[in-house]
Amino acid sequence: MDNKEILKNFNPSTSMSRRDAIKFMGISPIAASVLASTAGSSIAEASEDVSGKIVIVGGGAGGIMALSRLQRAIKNPDITIIAPNEVHLYQPGQVFVGAGELKIEDLAIDNNNYIDQSKVTWIKDEVKTFDADNNTLVTRNGEEVKYDFLVVAAGLQYHYEAIKGLSKEDIGKNGITSVYLNDLEKGTAKGATATWEWFNSLKEAAKTGKPKVIYTQPNTPIKCGGAPQKMLYLSADYLRQDGLSAEYSFVSSAGKLFSLPDIDKALHEVQDGYDTIENKFQHHLKAIDVKAKKATFIHAWDEEVYDEDFDTTETVSHADTVVMDYDFIHVVPPMSPVDAVMNSSLISKAGWLEVDKHSLQHTRYKNVFGIGDICGIPMGKTGGTARHHGPILTQNLISAMKGEELKAVFDGYTVCPIKTQYGKIIMAEFNFDGPAPTMPLDFSKPRWMWWAFDLYMLEPMYKYLMLTGRF
């Protein structure tokens, strides 16, 4: 039995014994190192005798992790979770489905394995409105729910409609794809399967010419900021394996490939290994003419202008319109919190859940906390960040329930496993202070071991350790 099959034999609905945990760690030195790096992050099980009704909003990774940790930490907890979905997706796997490495059925996670309705109240609905001033929310079906403490784990939403001329129905047609497109409530990922078909259509087109391919990155924070480049490099490598190529354009609203200089440099070197990749920075996608296969971008940039007469420098903003022809295009849509949060007093001026970046406590409503993608912190809309949020949120929420000072501090950890080709990943781990690699290796170097970890090890760890609050 291989390592992947051994891990899949673990049952998430039952406890993992110490022996199983040791066995798990023994399967892979990478897993052991990752587990060791977070040793001590969990708190003692059922050690806190506190009272108060906790409501968790969201049934994805953040909501399930928060639920599991709070249940394990509090004696006789009073917890209600509000989430319409009985299934959620293992979203890191969507890229692997898009690249033909996983099947769509590998991504579905049954929330019934993690939400014990004999101990937790599960309202299978969405929140329509929040009234944080009165510790109340109302569901889509009109049910009013009171809380003493609120955990917002509602995630984010995709705005394909913000791109003029594009609709969700266009994904998978006319050379257009987007690996992000999914229906979390139903546990489906149309975008991932459409992208794998897109890979193969692109390869067929490259057999008779050099198709023009565009990969976009919007002017909003996005889930997994490296995903647009992952799709670029994987599709380019998929062609390269057969001696084929295309004219690739990475068109991004950012000003560089990556915020960390070492990773940025490494990614430019990765691009040098492919044929004809053109970067267009400070461009965001405004419209698509689906039939004519034309993409319209707004190119916006600032220029420092020196005035000799007054010996002053001022910033002058510029913007122009750029139209690009394409044969194939991978679209990453603008993203935002869900409407219920967007339309509430919980939102910040920047448009995200207003939480302190270290404590994860709302800056104005002290009985409200956030976890995961919806949080308005400087970085980290990744599953790895939500995992690190988990113990911080748990400890600080319990401190708030006790009326004590919040002492747990989130350091900003996030991780971006950038697939640079089939079989190679740059594992970019960093926090508010800069690089924060798990292992003492050059973290800017693409490595096969990170590919193996991400493809074979991370999903079982997610199911059996992260979602159960043990890691």
Write the SSE topology.
Layout: H1 3-8, H2 18-27, H3 29-37, E1 53-57, H4 61-73, E2 78-82, E3 87-89, H5 93-98, E4 108-110, E5 121-123, E6 127-131, E7 136-139, E8 144-146, E9 149-152, E10 156-158, E11 176-177, H6 190-206, E12 212-217, H7 227-240, E13 247-252, H8 261-272, E14 277-280, E15 283-289, E16 294-307, E17 312-325, E18 328-330, E19 335-337, H9 339-342, E20 368-370, H10 383-402, E21 414-421, E22 424-431, E23 434-435, H11 448-466
Parallel strand pairs: 1-2, 1-9, 2-5, 9-20, 11-18, 12-13, 12-18, 13-14
Antiparallel strand pairs: 3-4, 6-7, 7-8, 10-19, 15-16, 16-17, 21-22, 22-23
Helix pairs in contact: 2-3, 4-10
Which features characterize this protein?
471 residues, alpha/beta, FAD/NAD(P)-binding domain, 5-stranded parallel β-sheet, 11 helices, globular, disordered N terminus
Number of strands: 23
Helix proportion range: 25-40%
The first-level CATH class name of the domain at 160-335: Alpha Beta
Q: Tell me the radius of gyration.
A: 23 Å
The largest β sheet comes out as: 5 strands, parallel
By CATH, the architecture of the domain at 160-335 is named: 3-Layer(bba) Sandwich
* Structural shape: globular
Q: CA-to-CA gap between the ends?
A: 25 Å
Please report the number of helical segments.
11
Question: Percent of residues in beta strands?
Answer: 25-35%
**Can you tell me the CATH topology of the domain at 160-335?**
FAD/NAD(P)-binding domain
The residue-averaged pLDDT reads: 89
- Strand order across the largest sheet: 5-2-1-9-20
The low-confidence runs, each spanning 5 or more residues with pLDDT under 50, are: 1-27, 38-42
Task: Assign the structural class, choosing from mainly alpha, mainly beta, alpha/beta, alpha+beta, or little secondary structure.
Answer: alpha/beta
